[in-house]
Amino acid sequence: MDETDSLIIKRMTEDARMSFRKIAKELGVSPDTVISRYRKLEEKGVIRGSTVVINQKNWIQGDGCIHDRHLADTYYRNRGHSA
């Protein structure tokens, strides 16, 4: 892992939705370089993936219903209730 890899990780940590093209522009390398390095970091297990973090309160307020059983269980367990 070199400085470019570290900078890619830093940018992805700051904003996981940042495009490879934008990261490449900021680092002064090609988008293909960022993509290939990202994939190598995944293969090595340095990057294990990316995820979406949902604000449960805002998501549930949409129509007042919880549509996913697992999310409902987690929601109530986090509030001290049994699922």
Give the ordered list of helices and strands. HHHHH
In CATH, the architecture of the largest domain is: Orthogonal Bundle
- The CATH superfamily of the largest domain bears the name Winged helix-like DNA-binding domain superfamily/Winged helix DNA-binding domain
The percent range for helix content is: 55-70%
- Could you say which overall geometry the principal axes of the C-alpha atoms support? elongated
Strand content: under 5%
Which class of the largest domain in CATH terms?
A: Mainly Alpha
Helix-and-strand structural type: mainly alpha
Return Rg in Å: 18 Å
Q: Domains counted in the coordinates: how many? A: 2
- The chain-level mean pLDDT equals 82
Largest sheet: none
Oligomer: single chain
State the end-to-end distance.
44 Å
The third-level CATH topology of the largest domain is Arc Repressor Mutant, subunit A
Number of strand elements: 0
* Low-pLDDT runs: none
How many helices does DSSP assign?
5
Throw out a few tags for this protein.
83 residues; mainly alpha; Arc Repressor Mutant, subunit A; 2 domains; 58% helix
Protein architecture, described:
The chain is an all-alpha fold. It folds into two domains: 3-43, Arc Repressor Mutant, subunit A (Orthogonal Bundle), CATH 1.10.10.10; 53-83, no CATH class. The protein has five helices and no strands. Helix 2 packs across helix 3. The model has no long low-confidence stretch (mean pLDDT 82).
Layout of secondary structure:
Elements: H1 3-14, H2 20-27, H3 31-43, H4 56-60, H5 69-78
Helix pairs in contact: 2-3
